[in-house]
Amino acid sequence: MMHLTNLKQDLEIRFPDTSHGDQWIINPFTCDLNTVQMNLKEKEQLIDLMSDESLRSIFKTTDLSKFWIMTEKEYPLLFKTSLLELLPFASTYLCETAFSTLTAIKTKYRSKLNVEPDLRVSVSDNISPRINILTASVQAQGSH
């Protein structure tokens, strides 16, 4: 039982309950301004954003992250705060993707395999083959 109590305390430290003060990030148009924890300038920006009907209609049809990215120029303080709150989910996603890929690559039959190169290629979105460099190096070796 002590183990579960320690686990609960550890989770509360690592993942504090922020649901009461940051609801405005999830839906800035329905939040209660009395429960919002922010400075005066941020509150002013939030009030302005709440009264912006064009953004309200965009919010209904747009992904949450994309919505906050669209507010960067007009509401920079709100954008920055929302980005800091939403960013950990993106980085957690990348870690989970890498772990899933690793478990798929490294099986019981491939346990001694050096997975680092395969994992790097599997997880990276922006790696493209550089055939011209490979062929040039092969041709250079062939001419010697």
TrEMBL record:
Classification via InterPro entries: HATC_C_dom
One Pfam entry name: Dimer_Tnp_hAT
Gene Ontology molecular-function annotations: protein dimerization activity
Limits of the HAT C-terminal dimerisation domain: 49-114
The protein's name: HAT C-terminal dimerisation domain-containing protein
Originating organism: Parnassius mnemosyne
Lineage: Eukaryota, Metazoa, Ecdysozoa, Arthropoda, Hexapoda
